């Protein structure tokens, strides 16, 4: 009973892991046996193939010796050099075959001795053939015939055939042994795997039965208990004594029921809470509507203010232009004053125009599909005069991409970044602007890279604030709104904007547009 109680206290996860470990060990053992015995079968098959190769090459040597003698006899009879072709060809090959056989049988010392002996006899046979060919060439047929008539060549050939037969007998004996070995290994492997499969199946059945009993009974008790709780019995006890997950779950549910019983509130209190929450929700809706109205009024005020300011500025510009025609009649101070008024008026007009555009960002709620390549191509046409003036190049290297967004705001975003790249260039260095894009999981990421003057790292946050400038107007023109405009457009499209830069080397502005 104590042993059974201890088993019940083992949690379900541990039981499953133990079962899985046993089954996995059995499978791994099966794989190991299969792999090991497969290697043995392959090795045995290789030995058989090796033996067959030796037998084949022994046959080749005999054939080559016949070719040697055929070439020699043809030459001795005719004296024509072309009859020596089989002799010369076979002489080159026969030693290759002998060396190959010696390598194949290097594991057998007896065969090595026999093959060395065979090679020695072959050497003598070839020496005898070379001698007859030499005598035929230099001393005539009769001199060569004397060597042939003494039967030394026949004696060498008989010795060679005897040695080859001895080597063949040894290899055939090995072949007989090696041919049966793969089948024996195969039968042994099959028997082992069948036994192991039976053992694994038995283990799986035992583990499954034990886990099933450990899960089924507690689930039944839990189901009956929860039915009682559903009927309103918050004092119900599940009486699951095991220390596994089900026992822990039963204790947890009982503690939750106890807390629920202690913390339940009356019907009137609940109704009061509901009424209070509805009132808060109503007040929040009123505040939301008021905020939206205030926001609209603020946008309208910004637009009207910017629009109304344009009239006096335009008047100032018109009159300053008229006064410029009369500059020659004025004093030097008057001429300088006219230039200052004119320059300030134009700058004020540009500033108001930028403010007006800044206030309008996001006022066009309808998003459209935008082809990025087309957008950049159109911008290059619009900026052609500035590009020609700066001798600049603008290149888009991203893939064809279509996104959804506020078209005119995005045009202004790319335009501001490109114009800045052209504006803040190094002296005597044509600007090079490279635009890239990348589709990511939740957004599209763009980058605009230039080879300009660069920005110090401590100014990275400052440049995105409205009216913030890093250079005087005498050095670079501008209103200080461009990058603030860019940041607002990016945030409108649920993205973010940042940069990397090195002074004197250029900058790269990155921004994302949410999908």
TrEMBL record:
Q: Where would I find the HAMP domain in this sequence?
A: 213-265
Q: Which Gene3D superfamilies match?
A: 1.10.287.130, 6.10.340.10, Histidine kinase-like ATPase, C-terminal domain
Output the InterPro entries linked to this UniProt entry. Answer: CHASE3, HAMP_dom, HATPase_C_sf, HATPase_dom, His_kinase_dom, HisK_dim/P_dom, HisK_dim/P_sf, Sensor_kinase/Photoreceptor
* Catalytic activity, EC: 2.7.13.3
Query: Quick check: keyword Hydrolase in the entry?
Result: no
Q: Which reactions is this enzyme annotated as catalysing?
A: ATP + protein L-histidine = ADP + protein N-phospho-L-histidine
Q: Write down any Gene Ontology CC term.
A: membrane
Domain named Histidine kinase: residues: 304-515
Q: Which residues cross the membrane?
A: 12-33, 190-212
Top EC class, one word: transferase
Q: What is its main location?
A: membrane
What does the UniProt keyword field contain?
Kinase, Membrane, Phosphoprotein, Transferase, Transmembrane, Transmembrane helix
UniProt-annotated location(s): Membrane
Task: Tell me if Electron transport is a UniProt keyword of this record.
Answer: no
SUPFAM superfamilies for the chain = ATPase domain of HSP90 chaperone/DNA topoisomerase II/histidine kinase, HAMP domain-like, Homodimeric domain of signal transducing histidine kinase
Q: Name one GO molecular function term.
A: phosphorelay sensor kinase activity
Pfam families recorded for this chain? Answer: CHASE3, HAMP, HATPase_c, HisKA
- Name this polypeptide is given: histidine kinase
Organism equals Flammeovirga aprica JL-4
């Amino acid at each position: 009973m104590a042993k059974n109680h201890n088993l019940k206290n083992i949690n379900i996860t541990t039981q499953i892991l133990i079962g899985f470990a046993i089954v996995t060990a059995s499978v791994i053992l099966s794989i190991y046996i299969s792999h090991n015995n497969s290697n043995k079968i392959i090795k045995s098959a290789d030995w058989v193939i090796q033996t067959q190769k030796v037998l084949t090459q022994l046959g080749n040597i005999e054939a080559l010796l016949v070719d040697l003698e055929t070439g020699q006899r043809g030459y001795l009879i005719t004296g024509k050099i072309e009859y020596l072709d089989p002799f010369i060809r076979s002489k080159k090959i026969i030693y290759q075959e002998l060396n190959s056989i010696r390598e194949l049988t290097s594991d057998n010392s007896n065969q090595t001795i026999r093959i060395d002996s065979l090679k020695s006899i072959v050497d003598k046979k070839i020496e005898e053939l070379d001698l007859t060919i030499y005598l035929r060439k230099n001393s005539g047929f009769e001199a060569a015939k004397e060597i042939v008539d003494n039967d030394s060549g026949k004696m060498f050939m008989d010795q060679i055939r005897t040695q080859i037969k001895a080597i063949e007998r040894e290899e055939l004996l090995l072949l007989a042994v090696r041919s049966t070995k793969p089948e024996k290994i195969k039968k042994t492997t099959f028997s082992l795997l069948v036994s192991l499969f039976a053992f694994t199946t038995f283990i799986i059945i035992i583990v499954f039965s034990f886990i099933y009993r450990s899960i089924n009974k507690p689930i039944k008790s839990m189901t009956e208990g929860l039915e009682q709780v559903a009927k309103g019995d918050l004092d119900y006890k599940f009486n699951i004594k095991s220390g596994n997950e089900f026992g822990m779950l039963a204790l947890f549910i009982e503690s939750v029921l106890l807390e629920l019983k202690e913390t339940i509130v009356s019907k009137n209190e609940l109704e009061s809470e509901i009424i209070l929450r509805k009132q808060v929700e109503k007040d929040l809706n009123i505040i939301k509507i008021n905020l939206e109205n205030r926001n609209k009024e603020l946008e309208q005020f910004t637009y009207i203010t910017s629009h109304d300011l344009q009239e006096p500025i335009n008047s100032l510009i018109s009159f300053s232009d008229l006064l410029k025609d009369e500059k020659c009649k004025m004093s030097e101070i008057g001429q300088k004053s006219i230039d200052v008024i004119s320059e300030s008026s134009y700058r004020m007009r540009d500033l108001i125009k930028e403010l007006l555009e800044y206030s309008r960002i996001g006022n066009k709620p309808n998003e459209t599909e935008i082809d990025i390549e087309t957008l950049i191509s159109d911008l290059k046409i619009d900026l052609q005069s500035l590009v020609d003036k700066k001798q600049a190049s603008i290149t888009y290297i991203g893939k064809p991409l279509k996104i959804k967004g506020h078209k005119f705001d995005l045009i202004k975003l790319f335009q501001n970044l490109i114009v800045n790249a052209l504006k803040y260039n190094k002296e005597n260095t044509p600007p090079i602007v490279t635009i890239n894009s990348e589709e990511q999981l939740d957004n599209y990421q763009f980058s605009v890279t230039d080879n300009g003057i660069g920005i110090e790292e401590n100014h990275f946050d400052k440049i995105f604030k409205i009216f913030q400038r890093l250079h005087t107007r005498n050095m670079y023109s501008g209103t200080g709104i461009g990058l603030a405009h860019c940041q607002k457009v990016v945030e409108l499209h649920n993205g973010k904007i940042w940069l990397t830069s090195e002074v004197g080397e250029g900058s790269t502005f990155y921004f994302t547009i949410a999908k």
